[in-house]
Specification:
This protein has 427 residues and is of the alpha/beta class. Helices cover 45% and strands 13% of the residues. The chain has 3 domains: 215 residues, 3-Layer(aba) Sandwich (Rossmann fold), CATH 3.40.50; 91 residues, Tyrosyl-Transfer RNA Synthetase, CATH 1.10.240; 86 residues, RNA-binding S4 domain (Structural Genomics Hypothetical 15.5 Kd Protein In mrcA-pckA Intergenic Region, Chain A). It contains 21 helices and 14 strands. The strands form 4 sheets. A 5-stranded parallel β-sheet has the order 3-2-1-4-5, with helices on both faces. A hairpin with a 3-residue loop joins strand 13 and strand 14. Helix 12 packs antiparallel against helix 15. The longest helix is centred in the middle third of the chain and has 16 residues. The protein is elongated and about 85 Å long.
Length: 427
């Protein structure tokens, strides 16, 4: 049975501003609603999961979602939340990015021919033949400079400088709403709270030009408890494409959520019901060190974004690499790809297979051949302090690496203390 869409988002903490009448509209009829996606890359990232989940909840509630990719607006740049002019994208780059965005969205939304089947559109398709004179005559004349300048996204930038290109962005986004209203009967636009000004411009154009009625709501921008930006790690953005962020790294991102952030994340980024989430939180509160909440969050999101095979691989890699009791036999259960993903960013060095076949002394492996440690003297000191391991097993200065130590005939994991690891790749 379809859910009450607005109420669902409300308890999940995904509702901020909402236009009067929006909830009533959604309760009385099948509504077509849309969200815009910026094609600045050939994939989407963790931050995009918020609008994706809004569309997913809309469809689950028995309404029709439209995913709009801004092929035209991507050439202009949205001033919202930005202090500088954006680099404009060329058509070839945009086409590549749009294809990548679509491939991600197809994993979340049901694109079928039913009345609630998702639709994907590109605003370049209706803007490419729109002449500048036609646009300012047919669209621009309906909004005053005073109205457009009053928007927060514009007001902040006027003080520091904004080009006419970016100033006109809200007109373009507003026209998108009008076009979708005419072509698809779309009455609802959703987005992040920083988009409220652009969204309400769309409802205003629907009213002024077509004497229609548009509705809107926004969700809060996701922030982390420590003030750092959501969806970023030391290695950069967390992507929804396995080629850009491995399923293991993706799982780890969610698993490493703090106790302050995890309750917010599990409501926003999973489809778990309220009662189940509260039960998981209660279990977590009894033994926070077991990280029950983070484990469930990471598993649910990884499964939804990737698949069961990817989740199984991430869980297997996590268990083996972080279990102090793991042996070389356990490590050999992992593929080279899983090992390298698990140790992404860890120093690596290539060693000749002949060196291993002849027997590679541990001191030479740590210093002379690999350069992991600065000198043989440092290697000896660390070995004397019982700080060195080969494939997670402690070794002494007399240890010799042989073919028996190779994982998948090509990898050796060296460790120094609890946190420093090195990868020998044998070729």
């Amino acid at each position: 049975m379809p859910k009450n869409f607005v109420e669902e988002l409300r308890w999940r903490g995904m509702l901020q501003d909402i236009m009067p009448g929006t909830e009533e509209l959604l309760e009385k009829e099948l509504v077509t609603g849309y969200v815009g996606f910026d094609p600045t890359a050939d994939s989407l990232h963790a931050g995009n999961l918020i609008p994706i989940m809004m569309l997913k909840h809309l469809q689950r509630a028995g309404h029709r979602p439209i995913a709009l990719v801004g092929g035209a607006t991507g050439m202009v740049g949205d001033p919202s939340g930005k202090s500088d002019e954006r680099n404009l994208l060329d058509e070839e780059t945009l086409a590549k990015n749009i294809a990548g965005v679509k491939s991600v969205l197809e994993r979340f939304l049901d694109f079928n021919d039913s009345e609630t089947g998702a639709v994907m559109v590109n605003n370049y398709d209706w803007m490419k033949n729109f002449s500048f004179i036609e646009f300012i005559r047919d669209v621009g004349k309906h909004l005053t400079i005073n109205y457009m300048s009053a928007k927060d996204s514009v007001k902040k930038r006027i003080e520091t400088g904004i080009s006419f290109t970016e100033f006109s962005y809200q007109l373009l986004q507003g026209y998108d709403f009008l076009h979708l209203y005419r072509e698809f009967g779309c009455k609802l636009q959703m987005g992040g709270s920083d988009q409220w000004g652009n969204i309400t411009t769309g409802t205003e154009l629907v009213r002024r030009i077509d004497a229609g009625e548009g509705f809107a709501f926004t969700c809060p921008l996701m922030t982390k408890a420590d003030g750092s930006k959501f969806g970023k790690t030391a290695g950069g953005a967390v992507w929804l494409d396995a080629d850009k962020t491995s399923p293991y790294a993706f799982y780890q991102f969610w698993f490493n959520a703090t106790d302050d952030d995890a309750p917010k994340y599990i409501r926003t980024f999973t489809l778990l019901e309220k009662e189940e989430i509260e039960a998981i939180e209660a279990e977590h509160a009894e033994a926070p060190h077991l990280r029950v909440l983070q484990k469930r969050l990471a598993a649910e999101v990884t499964l939804m974004v990737h698949n069961q095979e990817a989740l199984d691989s991430a869980l297997r890699t996590t268990e083996i690499l972080f279990n102090k009791k793991s042996t070389i036999d356990d490590l050999k259960k992992l593929s080279n790809q899983e090992i390298l993903e698990g140790f992404a960013g860890v120093p690596q060095a290539k060693i000749a297979k002949a060196d291993v076949d002849a027997g590679l002394g541990i001191i030479d492996a740590l210093a002379g051949k690999s350069g992991f440690l600065a000198s043989n003297g440092e290697a000896k000191r660390e070995l004397k302090g019982n700080a060195i391991s080969v494939n997670k097993a402690k070794v002494n200065a007399e240890y010799v690496i042989t073919a028996d130590d190779l994982i998948n005939d090509s990898v050796v994991i060296l460790g120094k203390g609890k946190k420093n690891n090195y990868i020998l790749i044998v070729e």
